[in-house]
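Hey, resending since the last one bounced:
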Amino acid sequence: MKIGIDMGGTNLRAAIVDTKGIDRMEQVASPAHGTEQEAIDALCKLVERLFDDGIEGIGAGIPSVIDRKHGIVYNAANIPSWKEVHLKDILHKRFGVTIAIENDSNCFTLGVARHGEGRRFGNFVGVTLGTGLGGGIIINHQLYGGMNGGAGEIGSLPYLDSDLEHYCSSMFFSRVCHTTAERLYNRAKDGDGKAMTLWEEFGRHMGNMVKAVMFAYDPEAVIIGGGISRAFALFEPSMRATMATFPYPKSVERLHIMPSTLPDAAVLGAASLV
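The structure tokens again:
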């Protein structure tokens, strides 16, 4: 058995994973605003609630650029105190098992590749829509992280007055709509016209994001996860209308784009690291 960890901007989740899937899950609020040591302690305490002699390894997905070999976390998004954390060494010293650290969006993408919709594609991009915008890349059925583990950081691509993350994540709803994605989702489902118009606007930004992914990677598929993905039906029409302006229509026609329905994909992907 293994433990998979998903350290998101809102929640910190960990689960025991065996050959059948998730056996037991634990969750706490993300220690985003704590000190470096407070965040480390919160992570270790959560793992302690699951750890026993049957655990063979621990894999963790962190919103950051990762030194995979040494398991060092640099400048974690949404955890400002984590500038340089030697997380692999810390967890190994504490628990004495195999440890692997990876970017959280890469863990989502790995989970989808091995357990979900990505199994039928050799080359695809996983996109996570949540507190931020992240991406993971699968090439020839293998995760591609790049030289510094930063491949797929599509949220940092310049866009309009900022970057894609500000328009294709919860930042869009807080900054432009002055509300949350969940509230706007519920209003749109109730037929609120203004809410539906804002989801249409979000979809146009999503369409431009997908076009950027197509220019950079030309994948077979784009698979979308994260909390905002459940609103896919609300933003899909305007997203696809924007994608129609891509200069290579045949590429758009061949591209598969879908939300993932795999629960806890990032946790499953993290566990698969070890």
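DSSP finds nine helices and 15 strands in the chain.

Sorry for the duplicate.
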